[in-house]
Amino acid sequence: MSERDARATAVRSWTQRELLRLMDVRPEGEGRYLAPAHGPTERNVVEAGQILGAAVVAAAKEVPHQRVTSVSMIFARIAEHEAPLDISVETLRTGRTFTTAQVRIGQREQLCATGLVLLDAGAPDLVRDAEEPPRVPPPETLRPLAIAGAEVEGRDMRVVDDAYDPDPDRIGPPELFVWTRFRDAPGHERLHAALLSQSTTHWTVAAALRPHAGFGEAMAHRSISTGITMATITFHDEADVSRWLLYATRATYTGRGQAHSEGRVHAQDGRLVASYTVHAMVRGFPSTRRASGPLL
């Protein structure tokens, strides 16, 4: 068997169970966790959303008596699917109400991502108000997203107006509305939060490129260099990822080789369950470098 055939045989398929295996990090000592390797893939780059989800789980396990409220991470360099991720969680301050922790994620003794996590002991409503969900068609009326590389067994994604389109000449406003649902409900709140986080970084580049004819998501990592550089997610209400969640992403700025987006996650009953912001790199490849992958 050739080396290429051996690698193809070793490829592990993308499933809901596999996403949970990768993000449900295991303890490796005081303040230390390990995220396992996925293995050989066509594009050997771990998604920022997966790293964000792993950080959520690590912080939740480190401070189990409080709920992860917000995570903000900078992605400093690529992490590869073919090696595990080393995660450290340092509790900077522990209080009866809030805890602040720093998470560092590395691979082969190189820092890949770092961020801050806020955890909360919880409290009843004093008052309550939230942004209303956008008026979009319900998921039952939309077609499942069926683009190679975007499919995960056990996850159903449906894009309003089929706007996540590989055609670079189809233009529209800088926004995407995506219904997402997983087949099975994971057994712990932190795993719901991890799966919810994993999808937040998917839509910024596509939304930013939509208004510009001749540019599209299908060009990412091939003829244009893209990558997620920073992401923040704040969890508001409880979310069940086995029920439909609407990700509403709008690119608020694109220019100078960057794109920035703001997003909301609404349950189908209208509740706002999370908010997120994403910063991305969107630029041409240097003329001296082959277009084989992102700079980040």
TrEMBL record:
Top-rank taxon, per record: Bacteria
Transmembrane segments: none
Acyl-CoA thioesterase-like N-terminal HotDog domain residues: 48-117
Residue ranges annotated for the Acyl-CoA thioesterase-like C-terminal domain, each copy included: 152-277
GO biological process: acyl-CoA metabolic process; fatty acid catabolic process
Cited InterPro entries: ACOT8-like_C, Acyl-CoA_hotdog, Acyl_CoA_thio, HotDog_dom_sf, TesB_ACOT8-like_N
A Pfam match: 4HBT_3
DNA damage among keywords: no
Keyword vocabulary terms for this entry: Hydrolase
MF-aspect GO terms: fatty acyl-CoA hydrolase activity
SUPFAM superfamilies per record: Thioesterase/thiol ester dehydrase-isomerase
PANTHER family in alphabetical order: ACYL-COA THIOESTERASE, ACYL-COENZYME A THIOESTERASE 8
Family of the protein in this entry: Belongs to the C/M/P thioester hydrolase family.
Full protein name: Acyl-CoA thioesterase II
Organism, scientific name: Nocardia wallacei
